[in-house]
Amino acid sequence: MMDKHSIRFISPVDGDMLHDRDGQTAGDTLEVTVTLSAPADSTIRINGTQATRTNGLFTAPLRLSGYENRIEAVDGTTGEKNEITVYYLKNFAGKYRLSIDDNIWFLRDIHRHTDTYHSLFDNPYLAFLREVNALYGTKVHLNLFFRTDEFDLSEMSDKFRDEWRSNAGWLRLSFHALAEFPDKPYQHAGYEEVKRDCERVMKEIRRFAGEELMGPMTTLHWGEATVEGSRALRDCGYTAQLGYFNVDDDLPAVSYYLGVEERRHIKRRFIWKDNREGIIFIRSSIVIDKTPLEQIPAYLDAYARRGSLPPYVDLLVHEQYFYPFYEAYQSDYRDRILASVKWADENGYTPAFLSDCIFPG
After folding, report:
1. Which domains does the chain have, with CATH numbers?
2. 148: nearest Cα among 118, 113, 111
3. What is the pLDDT of residue 5?
C-alpha cells in the first residue's frame, strides 16, 4: 500500500471497497470525498473536478456508480498523475452471515449413519444449523477439513446429494485445510501444496454435495499463508479470503501474507482488495467460541463506541465445541450462536452470503 508519488491518496486508497456507510447515496450512486496529499503549490483535479486545499490536504467530491471505479488525480502545475482503483459494493452494508471453521466431525457422523439416516438433518449439528436458518433466515458457511480420525471426505456418500443441493439457498461448503493439525499448516507452504489440498476438498464437495454449495469465498485454517499460498486459493476459485487481521496486540495475526499497514487498514475497514493479486480480504467481527455468552452483545456493541459497527458482520465459530465428547466442549454452544445471530437481527442486519455482497451482480 506504499505510494511513492508526491500525490498520495489518503482516502480512499487503492483497493478500497466502499459501501453505503462511506458516503451519501442517491439512487444507485454513492458520493464520497476523495482526500489526498500533494505539494502545497499543486493544482489538483480529481477525475476532472478541481480539488480544494484545506488544512494541508486536497479534497474533492466523487460520485461512484459502477462496481469498479478508477480515480485519477492530476497536478495541473507539474503534470504529475496518480491513480487508484476502488470498488462500490451496493449490497454490502447491513448484511451478515454465520461462518463455521474446522468442520469434519458432522460429516464423519453422516458417513457412519449412511444406512440409517434418512436425511442430512438427522445429524444433530446440521439440524441445529437448520433451526438457526428457520428462526432468522441466517446464511451458514462451513469450511471443511479433508480428514480426521478414521474418516476422510473421499468416503462421504453421495446419497444426500439432492438434499444438499436443495438447501444451497442458505448453506455453503468450502476448503479449510487438509486436517486440524499441525497448527498453521500453510504459514510457510508453497503454491503447489495449498493448491493440492484445496483441490482435494473441492473435488469431494462437488461429488457428494454439488457445485451449488460452492463459491468464491473461504477461510484458510489459521488464516496464515504465503503470497503463493493465497494465489493458489485464488486460482482454485477462492478470490475472497477471510481472517482476523490482528495487529498491535498479542493475538494471532490470522492475516495471510499481509503486512502491518494492510492489517491496520483492514482492521478499521473490514474489507480491502489487493489489486496486485486480485484477492479480496474480509475481517471477521467476532469469534463466538472465544467470547463468553453473557459478553457477546457487549462485544459487538463495542464496535460502535470505537467508531462504528461493522458494515458486514461475519459471525465466526468452530465446529468442535458443539460436541460433549470434545475436551473443550461448550455446553452453551447453541446459545452463543443464537445470541450472536439475534444481535445481528436486532441491529438491523439481514442475512446474505459474502459472495452475493462483494462481487458485481
Report:
1. 8-88 (2.60.40.10), 95-356 (3.20.20.370)
2. 111
3. 72
Q: Are strands 151-152 and 147-148 parallel, antiparallel or unpaired?
A: antiparallel
d(CA 303, CA 15): 23
Strands (E), 244-289: 271-274, 279-283, 286-287
Count CB atoms within 10 A of the CB of residue 358: 24
**Buried-state track 72-85, b at ≥16 Cβ within 10 A, e below 16:** ebbbeeeebebebe
Q: What is the pLDDT of residues 218-243, one digit of tens each?
A: 999 999 999 999 999 999 999 999 99
Block residue for cell numbers 507539474: 78
15: helix, strand or coil: coil
Position 308, amino acid: S
- DSSP assignment of 296-341, as one string? HHHHHHHHHHHT---SEEEEEEEGGGG-TTSTT--TTHHHHHHHHH
DSSP character string of 26-58: ETTEEEEEEEEE--TT--EEETTEEPEEETTEE
The letter for the amino acid at 104 is: I
Query: In angstroms, rounded to a whole number, what is the distance separating the alpha carbons of residues 17 and 261?
Result: 17
Cell numbers at 235, concatenated = 486460482
pTM: 0.97
**Which residues fall within 8 angstroms of residue 151, CB to CB, at 6 or more apart?**
104, 107, 108, 111
